[in-house]
Hints:
alpha+beta; Nucleotidyltransferase, domain 5; Serine Threonine Protein Phosphatase 5, Tetratricopeptide repeat; seven-stranded mixed sheet; two-stranded antiparallel ribbon
Amino acid sequence: MSSLADRLRGVIRPAAGGPEGPPLREPDERRGAPSGAPAHETAADILGGEWRESCGHRFLVIDRKYSPGYRHGRIAVADSLPPPEGPWPRLSLLAGASCGGRMLFIDLETTGLAGGAGTYAFLVGCAWFQGATFRVRQFFLASFAAERVLLEAVAEAAAESGTVVTYNGKSFDVPLIDTRFQLHRMETPFAGMPHVDMLHPARRLWRNDDDDGEERVGRPFMGRQSGCRLNALEGALCGHTRESDVPGFEIPSRYFHYVRSGDARGMEAVMEHNRLDLLSLALLTARASQLLEDGAAAAGTAREALGIGRLYERGGLIAEARAAFARAAEMPGADLSTRAEALRASAVLCRRERRYEDAAAAWRRILDLRRCPPQIMREATEALAVHHEHRLRDPLAARGFALESMKLPVSHARQQALQHRLARLDRKLGEATHSTLFSAT
C-alpha cells in the first residue's frame, strides 16, 4: 500500500512535456549516435558548429558568413548594406523610436507556439552586418541544463548591439526569450532597446487585400491569404524560392526527436530554415528602409506608396506623407481599394491641417470611384455632409450627402445619428424657406 507521501508525489509530479510535444529530457549522448562516437560530437559535425562550455554545461554555436556577392534570389548582400556609421537613416520610422548602434536580427525556433514558461527557445538565431559581410550566429540548446549559459552568450551578442530587428518579434520572439531570462533571474538584454518588428511595416507596404489583380503581375504583391509570411515576402521581393524547406509546424517535433535519440540529422534543415529567415529579414528591412529614404517616387506599386505615406505620417513627416498619398492615388494600375485608401488618408491628413477644401476635394474623388469599399464611401459622404452643413452653410447639399449615407450599410447607432442630422437639416431648410417667404412679403 503506497504512503501518503508517494501519492502526493504522484499528484504534483510535473506534467509531461510542454505545450506541444513529448516530455522534455536531456538527450542521451549515446542513443542514435554512430558506433564509437558520442552524440554530442556527431551533432557538432552534422550541424557544422563548435561546442562552448561554461559551468560544466555545453551548448552548440554555429557561425556562417554571407559575402557581399552572395545572392538571395535576385538580391545580393552588397545591395542591402547599411551605412558604415550605423543603421539606415530612416530605420527609426520603422521602429517608432530613435535607433542607433549595430542592428541585431533575431529569430527563434521553439518547442511550441503557445509561449509561456513551458516553452523553450532551443535555437536562438542572431545576425548582423559586419562591414560588407552578413554574419549569422546560432545558439543551439543541445542540453536543457545548459540554458542559462546559452542565454549568457546571447546577452553578450546583444550587448554589442543598439537595435533589435525581428519579424513578429514583439508578439512572440522577444517576450518569449525575456521570459527565459526572467526564469533564470537574469536581466534581459532587450529591455529598453529600440525594436523594429518588420511584420507591421510589411503589412503596410506589401499586403494587398483587393482581389481584382491589377497590381499582381510582375510586381511585389501579398494577398490576404498569405498573411505576409516571411517566406512569401522572400519570394515576392527577393525572387528566392526555398526548396525542401522544413515546415514551421514540423520544427518542434524534429527537436523532440533529437532530444529522445541524440540524432541531429533532422536538425540540419531547421538550422538552414532559421538562417534563411534571418537573411530574408535583413534584406526585407533594407528594402523598406531604402524606400523610406528614396521617397514615394521609388515605390513600385500604389500599395508601396500608400504604405510609405502611412509610415511618414506616423513619423511626423507630413509633407512627405501627403506626397506619398497623392502618388498612390494617381499611379497607373492602382487597384480601387488602394486608390480609395490613399484618397481617404489624404483627406484625413488635410482635415487635420485645417485644409478643409482640399479634404473635401479628396472625399469627392472617392465618391467618383466605382465599387469603392462601402466603409470608405460612408465616411466620405458623412464628411461631405459635415463640410457643407458647417463650413459652406449649404444645408440642401448636406442633406443630399446624408441621404447617400443612409443607403449604405451602417450600425444602428450610426443610423440614429444620421436621422438626427437629417432632422436638423430639415429644420434649417424649413427656417430658410420661412425666412425667404417672410422677406418676399
